[in-house]
């Protein structure tokens, strides 16, 4: 693939913008403003577009009421999540996005040994590497970046870490560990070793793979979950964490009186509404079917595609991934995620989110034109 001079100039500007954004992607607003381009399909943001429309419909009728009143307390919102997930609300903290909870929790971890499989969501090791010893468990492309459970357990037992962190399903590979495997890992941990599991993509798995109900009865498991992916509401900033009381008490919960804004708060109350959750589950199942069809179409292209239990796919093209990333954005307005900064991957991968059925067809058509 040969980029034009204009596309190469565009690529240089993208590199500058990426450098300013750190290890995370530049936002749609930043790209459109700085590069004067229009993003038609955001295949970088990992969300369910169908439940996004559902959320808009419900929020529309409550905006006025929520903007004129103070939002409710964190503990009140935790009760609604507890009803939805059938969990003890006293163990739940609601966050301004999952990232707030990740920051809060990891800030309590100092001078510890932490095991993290890689490639992984970079925020965890970014926040921990300065004050802790990170022990990377490197996953292999030859094994589809899947965790070999027995090799992983052997690694944990040999290194004897204080914490084990899992992203499940993994980001960026989309690989998953099912509950029996996680229970096995947990059963072999000592009581003073803590298992942290990020389940932000768990609702996109074919089967119910969440470990929440099991974790609710354990004293050394923390679950973190973003709700922006499930409902397509990144700007709303909403997530939650389920954790043992002894860990929750270490956090500065005094700052959590009004950390959730009014719109996010009213949305949180929908989670205990049976009608809303029934509609959400229909959206979720529809999206999973679209995702499966998208995977089938991707597999027909001349790229390596990794099967995924999340709502995105890791792909390795035969051409330079950065050039393909630029071409998709510049020519088609399709924004994907270039992964040349991920520890544990070489520099030739893209991550592409599944979108609506119509948008997925447009992504496939663009890839087909550029790769055939």
UniProtKB/TrEMBL annotation:
PROSITE patterns: AA_TRANSFER_CLASS_1 (PS00105). It is an enzyme of class 2 (transferase). Transmembrane segments: none annotated. The keyword Transferase applies. Keywords: Aminotransferase, Pyridoxal phosphate, Transferase. Its EC number is 2.6.1.-. InterPro entries: Aminotransferase_I/II_large (IPR004839), NHTrfase_class1_PyrdxlP-BS (IPR004838), PyrdxlP-dep_Trfase (IPR015424), PyrdxlP-dep_Trfase_major (IPR015421), PyrdxlP-dep_Trfase_small (IPR015422). GO terms for molecular function: transaminase activity. Its cofactor is pyridoxal 5'-phosphate. Gene3D superfamilies: Aspartate Aminotransferase, domain 1 (3.90.1150.10), Type I PLP-dependent aspartate aminotransferase-like (Major domain) (3.40.640.10). Pfam families: Aminotran_1_2. Residues 78-366 form the Aminotransferase class I/classII large domain. Belongs to the class-I pyridoxal-phosphate-dependent aminotransferase family. This is Aminotransferase. It comes from Elizabethkingia miricola.
